[in-house]
Amino acid sequence: MGYFYEDILATVPIFDSLTKVELLQIQSVGKVVSFEPEQEIITEKEEGTALFVILNGEVRVVRKGDAETEVILAILKTGQFFGEMSLLDGQERSASVIANTKTELFMIQRNDFVDFLYTYPSLSISILKELTKRLRTADMKIKAQSMKDAEAKVASIIIQLADEIGKIKNGKLVIERLPLQVQIANMAGTSRETVSRMLHKFIKLGYIEMEYAKVTILEYNKFKQAYGL
Q1: Tell me: the pLDDT tens digits for 131-166?
Q2: Global pTM?
Q3: At 214, which CATH number?
């Protein structure tokens, strides 16, 4: 119990305002579940019965397009959560979630989660802050999709991924494992060939460096400003 609290649950942003006693109460009603890479965790349109917090690993939030093409809405990593919308409004799941890597999740059932929201107002505020952040990301995506310029569309997806899974290293923002170019194309509403061409252009302009799937954004704010994002 102590190990779980000290090394995992206390590091999750939505729980960081809670005391040790409160965290142990949450821990006592939830459970840890594991998923293998490419295993589906929740399915679009199914009933939402639980909230999931990522303890270790990475997942992608997707919707199925025509011919079962996969449109990535977001990539979530350790410390982030998903499944809260269906718990709050009682509606069916709005998207599927699939493990990108071997992933451990803390799962808490709807009734317990809602009880905690009433009991601990600070938890409700943390949830609202995260939802607001996600709304801002969605607004940026809508803005990007309205652009006719493919360059700006691809740039907006790189920035979204940087916000979601990027890490600061030596003053630079690093995305350790960029999604496949076809996945980025689905996110940006363009083609894989266009994504490839734009990535090479960003390299030539000095905005990014690439080493296989690893992308380093050399000057993040300058990159955002260049495309009005």
Answers
A1: 887 787 777 667 666 666 888 889 988 998 898 888
A2: 0.77
A3: 1.10.10.10
CA–CA distances in Å: residue 30 to residues 128, 143, 225: 21, 38, 43
Cβ atoms of residues 215 and 158 within 8 Å: yes
The vertex-12 CA angle with 10 and 15, nearest 5°, equals 70
Q: Which helix (H) or strand (E) holds 145?
A: helix 121-146
Q: Which domain holds residue 163?
A: 147-226
Number of domains in the chain: 2
If asked whether residues 53 and 77 sit together in one domain, one would say yes
Q: Is residue 140 part of a domain?
A: no
Q: Which of 51, 133, 120 is nearest to 87 (CA)?
A: 51
Across the beta sheet with 58-64, the strand order is 40-42, 96-99, 58-64, 70-77
Residue 23: inside a domain, yes or no?
yes
Neighbours of 156 (CB within 10 A): 24
